[in-house]
Specification:
With 190 residues, this protein is mainly beta. It has 1 helix and 9 strands. Helix content is 11%, strand content 35%. The strands form 2 sheets. Strands 5, 6, 7, 8 and 9 form a 5-stranded antiparallel beta sheet that branches.
Length: 190
């Protein structure tokens, strides 16, 4: 029998300790990859001169002054949703607010908020639903640059305020410098 041309490489035979060392090294790599994830994505826009602007978080609905007449009662934020509504790369906040009442169903107002020019406060830039309409917002969302809501209302003053009998699904989209309202379906009885 002729000896092999290559010498016997005894160290190439894997032993359990080698498999354990390999598994430990792989576990360390996977754990490190999990810890070194990038932060959450933020939108940025180019500032004048082409330099990237710093992305801002959505305005805080609790920092805004709302144009509601509550007769000394506090303003309550019932719902809020955020997203970029005007395509500038910065999110706006849509807030559903009403006067806080001890009982009953006070009418809601829906406002669009953006950051104030100075300071940390939010400012109201548009009113989507006036409280004088005597409606309540059952659902609110911001998706794909549009605000969608389900509005509950009353067919006549005789309908008790506890029990709205009309429902309307609506949306608003920023077009030509203002929010344009569209019905997602005709008003219907609840």
């Amino acid at each position: 029998m002729q000896p092999p041309a290559v010498p016997d490489l005894a160290h190439t035979h894997a032993r359990p300790v080698h498999w354990l060392a390999t598994a430990t090294a792989m576990a360390a790599v996977v754990a490190a990859a999990g810890l070194l994830q990038p932060g959450p994505a933020t939108a940025t826009t180019a500032a004048p001169g082409g330099e990237p602007a710093v992305a801002r978080p959505a305005p805080d609905a609790s920092s805004a002054d709302y144009p509601l007449e509550c007769g000394g009662a506090p303003v309550k934020i019932a719902r809020r949703a955020s997203g970029d509504l005007d395509g500038d790369g910065n999110p706006e906040t849509v807030a559903v607010v009403h006067c806080e009442a001890g009982s009953g169903t006070p009418p809601h107002a829906v406002y669009v908020l953006t950051h104030a020019k100075t300071g940390p406060h939010a400012r109201v830039v548009a009113t989507l639903v006036e409280p004088s309409l005597q409606q309540n917002v059952a659902e609110l969302a911001v998706r794909d640059g549009a605000v969608t809501a389900t509005l509950l209302g009353y067919s006549s003053p005789e309908v008790p305020s506890c029990c709205p009998d009309e429902r309307e699904d609506v949306s608003w989209r920023w077009k030509g410098g203002s929010f344009v309202r569209a019905a997602r379906s005709d008003a219907q009885r609840v």
